[in-house]
Amino acid sequence: MSHRKKAKENGDLEKDVIDFFIHESDARIVVMNPDFTIVEANLPYLEAVSKPKAGVLGAHCYELTHGLSAPCSISQPELGCPLLETLRTGKSAHVIHEHLFPDGRAVYCNMVTYPLKNPSGQVTRIIEMWRDITRELSHRVENRVKSLKADLQKLVQEDRMISLGKLVASSVHEINNPIQGLLTFSRLMETSLQEGKLTKKTMAEFKEHLALMSSELERIGKIVSGLLSFARQSEAGWNPVEVDDILDQVIHLTRHKMEIQNILFERKRSDMPLTINGDLHQLQQCFLNLVFNSIEAMPKGGSLFIRSDLDPFSGRVTVEFRDTGCGIPEEHLGHIYDPFFTTKEAGQGTGLGLSIVHGIVKAHQGDIQVNSRPGEGTTFVLSFPRAQEGELP
Fold first, then answer.
1. Is residue 107 part of a domain?
2. Coil, strand or helix at 109
3. 383 & 248 share domain
4. Distance CA 31, CA 53 (A)
5. Can you give the pLDDT at residue 350?
6. Is the domain of 102 the same as that of 28?
7. pLDDT above 90 covers what percent of the chain?
8. Between the chain's N and C termini, which has fewer beta carbons within 10 Å?
9. Which residues, in sequence order, are CB contacts of 80 under 8 Å at separation 6+?
10. 250, 328: one domain
11. Is the predicted pLDDT of residue 127 greater than 80, yes or no?
């Protein structure tokens, strides 16, 4: 057998193997010239682009799978072209692309290109094979989102325990003072009863004491009730919630801490209901962290202004926290939401407070903006999509 005849037979065998591979595979496969024109395509590819074979052969790949009038390397260089990479290196190339078909479909593809070379080693044609991984990526994204939500919920619960410790520490003084008064009144009444000094004047004084004791006990009950309500670990779930109601709860929990720290507090409520879809506990923790952040920025006193409103232009619910604290240096503003970033002294903060705030806001399809000047104060503005009419409770 002559060398030429043997080479021809080997070439025919190679072509048969390639043809078999192309047409028996369930992957989308095309064979292209170096100028991007398609010379062969299998049935899965034709089904993917919704075209007959006559409408594919001679067409350019970028026209069919990207809707472009020029190669990806020219029109959208950020995509990265595996065909060009194979032509450049003479080796296979791999990339994940988003294919955009003329009918509007968007498909994520795992693409591989292989070179076909002539006897001199020159790449004469390229086999492009791709697999639709849209569903696989969607599952991965869904699982990742679920994992992130679970991580956020865990962080929120841990942060709630830290916040609870701060609230309990500040409430001890608020509870202890009336308790001392109650003890004094009860001992005075006990002594008077033992000594038989129940005159009309004493009885009138006792009546006043009992009214005061009742008022103080009621106040202690509200403080304890607020702490117990905050400490509950059950998941609130995703429901329509009133932003002003959550703010009222947070203010009730932190008002005494502001008072003992000489912080003047001002609140401006909206005239209309501000209902958003969200997790009650997460939003409560979000607002509480911002209030604590302001309080800790004003160790020698200052002022805190909280306003809730409906933006007339965007229709979004906005919540503003403005303090006159120490402010945030400009070079730190880009890092305040980074986990564990803090400028506080060791032991005075975990560096997770604002990171958790940012995570909660984003989980609620919200936005957060900050404006700060060192020595003047800081303003945080949160915005959330308002619950639609059919979503209201």
1. yes
2. strand
3. yes
4. 13
5. 47
6. yes
7. 17
8. N
9. 72, 95, 97
10. yes
11. yes
